[in-house]
Specification:
By secondary structure, the protein is an alpha/beta fold. The protein has helices spanning 31-50, 69-81, 97-100, 105-109, 115-122, 173-182, 196-205, and strands at residues 5-8, 14-18, 23-24, 58-63, 85-90, 128-132, 135-140, 154-159, 183-191, 207-209, 212-213, 220-226. Helix 1 (31-50) crosses helix 2 and helix 6 crosses helix 7 (196-205). The protein is globular. This is MnmC-like methyltransferase domain-containing protein. It holds the Pfam family Methyltransf_30.
Amino acid sequence: MKDVQLHATKDGSHTLINPTLKESYHAYNGALTESQFIYIECGLRYFLSLNTVNDQTINILEFGFGTGLNALLTLKQSIDARQAIKYSSLEPYPIPIDTAQKLNYVKKLKMPSPELFTQIHACDWGEVEEITEKFELLKIQQKLHDAALTLNSVDIIYYDAFAPSKQPDAWEKHLFEKCFQALKPNGLLVSYCANGQFKRDLKAIGFKLDQCEGPMGRREITRAWKR
C-alpha cells in the first residue's frame, strides 16, 4: 500500500491514513491505547485469564496486519509473560518498510529491543519467522476470501479490517463462518467493530457474544466465543 500518510493520534502514537479509502488504520483518539485495550486486554489477556495454558502455545490469527501494531503488542505480551505464541496475519496490501520505520510505537512502548519491530516488517511474506524464542510470525499477503484455514486450529482471532462502510467485502457473513470453523472450541474472536449487522451475523453462525465496553469514548467492541 503506497502513498499512505502518517498521522499522530491523541495519545501521541502514530496511525496511517489510507488515501484511497480515506480511512485511518487506527483510532484518532489513540492508536496504541485502542489496540492495547481491544486486542491485548480484552483479547489475549482475557483469554489467558480464563484458560490454564501452562506451556501450551497460543495460536493467533489476525485479519489486517496493517501497521504491525497488534503484532508488536502481542509480541510484547509474549515477552512480558513468557508466553509462547504463533502469530499468523493476513494482509493483501502491505505498507512499505520505510513507512513502517517512521512509526513511533517502539518509542512509545519503551521496548528494550527496538529492532524487533523492524524484524516484524522486514521478514519475508509467506515464511515462518522466529522473532523470539517464544514468538513465531507468519505474514500472508492474501485476503481472507482466498485463505485456506485449518479447522479447529486457532485460539484467538483479531478481526481488524477497515470499517464495513469503507471495505464492505471484508465483512461478509461467509468470512465469519470461516473464522468460526478455524477457531478451536472455546476460541475467541475480538474486533473494534460493533456494527449491528456484524454482531447479528456472528450470533446467527453460532458465536456467543460478551457485552464489552470500548476504549476512549467508543461505546462498545465485539468479543465473540465459539462455544
